Structures are given as C-alpha cells and as structure tokens.
Amino acid sequence: MTTVLRAIAARGKIALPFGLVVGIAFPVLGDAIKPWLGLVVLILLALAAMRLGPKPVLAARGGGRLGLVVLLYQVAVPLALFAIFDAVGWTGTVPLAIVLLASAASTTANINIVLLTGHDQAPALRLLVIGMAMLPLTCIPVFTLLPELGSPAAVAWVSAKLFTYIVLATAVGFALRHLFMREPDDGDLATVDGLSTIMLVVIVVGLMGAVSPALRDTPLLVLQILAIATATSLGLQVLALLLWRSSVGQKLAQVHEAVGFAVIGGNRNMALYIAALPASIIDPMLLFIGCYQIPMYLTPILLGPLYKRVETRR
C-alpha cells in the first residue's frame, strides 16, 4: 500500500487534472461525494498537519509581518471587492462567491503549486499556517457584510465552527504524526503526500459534479463562469506578484517570498467553507467553485512561464 501511495505522490502533477476530467465525465461520482465534501476537506487538513508537524507551526518566522499579509489578503481584498461590486450594482451568486473566495485562507495545494513553478515553497507554507490560524477571526468582518448569513449570531456561529474544525483537524494530524511519524523520512512524507493527493482528487471530483450537468444544459453559462473564475484566480495572482515585486511591497515581503505569496493571492481554500457554511449558501456556488478548480490546479501551466522568470535571490 505504501508503495502505491508513494507512486501516486510522485505523479501528483497529473493526478489533479485527472480529477478534473473524471469529475466532468462522471458527474454521478461528484453527486455521491458531495455530502461528504466537508469531511474530506477536514481529512485533508489533518493530513497537512500530520505532514508538517507542530514545529513549523510554532516556529513560523516573521509572524507579525505575515499577519499583516494575511489581513491584506483575507480582510482588505474581499472588503475592497465587496465595495466595488456594490458600487457597480453587481449582485448574485458569482460576486458573493468571489468575495468569499478572497476571504479564505490558502489551500494546501499551493505548497505543491509553488514547488512546480520552481520556487521556494517555505514562504507559502508559513503564510498558509498563519492564514489558517487567523481565518476564524478574519472571516468575521467579511461575513458581517453578507446578508445571506443573517444575524451577527449566525456569523459568530460560523466563525466558531471554522475555529473548531481547524483546531480539531490540526490536533488529529499532530497526534497521528506523534504516534506514527515521530522521525519521518522521505518515504513517510511521500506516503502522506499520496494520501493527500487522493483526498485532493476526491474533492476535485466532488466539486466538479456541478459542472458536468451545467455544461450539458447551459454550456454558455459554464463558459462565462469559467472565464470569471479564471480571471479571478489568475488576475489576483498577477496583481499580487506586481505588488510584492514593487518597492512598496518589498517593505512587507522579501524578494524570495514574492512567488509563494502571489500564488496564494489567487488560490484559496474555499472548500473549507463547505464544512462551515449552510448548504443554502454553498450549493448555489458549487458551479463557480467547480470552475475555479480548473485555473487553480493549472496555475503551474498557465502562469508557470511568468513565475519562472521572476528573480528570487535573497
């Protein structure tokens, strides 16, 4: 079994596009997975904690500086987007999904995405840790502006659920590492990577379940939403890269952190909200979330040439 998992980890670059294709081709699988998506997301978070262990979490360097980056990403950007959408009168499921997307923390897949672009994954890892830890607090001002969530008590409840899920999943991951991987070697880490890849594929297939029927019934709508999702993911990444490469941005981010921070700027873990938000809010967004997976997991291909040109000398 470990040999199989390590082989899957070694082929992770093609596993996620494979999941996209399977999810579109076999929507029945997506429908079967959908009720379990929240649980699978938490399992993936636990596996990420198991792989990392507590040391990188407790010793994340530059916590205060990274906290400012998180506030920019998870509070300032979504609030700015909300204000822009409100000013131009753009309402509905898609703008709401974009605002929620911008308020989310980094996805664990970003660590591998940055690695595939040929850059240091450590900055992305540290920002992921800080962003996930701050999410139960940073989500509050954004959620408060969304009438779909209802009263302040409902917002507080969602924040508390996020906090509970993150803490429990992280604790389970740390406990598993303590029990089974106190001194992990490369093979042990590859085994966990294989399990994580499987969970990522399951999530992708589940999220793509909403895309296939819509592609059959309303193909133009799917193409429109895919275009918006792609522009959102890639656009936020390019804007973030320009910021972190500017003289202003380099006061907050070091040169070698630019690509890792940029990738996180446009690729967020919206799937975690599936576990915390009510289905009445999430279900209408599943088509957008499914389309969003495509540019996110194709980032190394779509923006790889740009990222490979970025100089990252310390």
Tally of distinct domains: 1
Structural class by helix and strand composition: mainly alpha
User: Unreliable stretches, pLDDT < 50, 5 or more residues?
Assistant: none
**Largest sheet entry:** none
Share in β-strands: under 5%
Mean pLDDT reading? 87
> Helix amount, in percent?
over 70%
Helix tally equals: 19
In angstroms, what separates the terminal alpha carbons?
Answer: 41 Å
Shape: globular
Using only CA atoms, what is the Rg? Answer: 19 Å
- The CATH architecture is Up-down Bundle
Which descriptors apply to this entry?
314 residues; mainly alpha; Na+/H+ antiporter like fold; globular
Task: Kindly summarize this structure in a few lines.
This protein has 314 residues and is an all-alpha fold. It is 78% helix and 0% strand. The protein has one domain (2-307): Na+/H+ antiporter like fold (Up-down Bundle), CATH 1.20.1530.
Plain-language structure description:
The protein has 314 residues and is an all-alpha fold. The protein has one domain: Na+/H+ antiporter like fold, CATH 1.20.1530. It has 19 helices and no strands. The protein has helices at residues 2-10, 12-25, 27-33, 37-52, 54-58, 63-88, 93-103, 109-116, 122-144, 152-180, 186-208, 211-217, 219-245, 258-266, 271-276, 279-282, 286-297, 299-302, 304-308. Helix 2 runs parallel beside helix 11 (186-208), helix 3 packs across helix 11 (186-208) and helix 6 (63-88) crosses helix 9. The longest helix has 29 residues, at 152-180. It is globular and about 55 Å long. The mean pLDDT is 87.
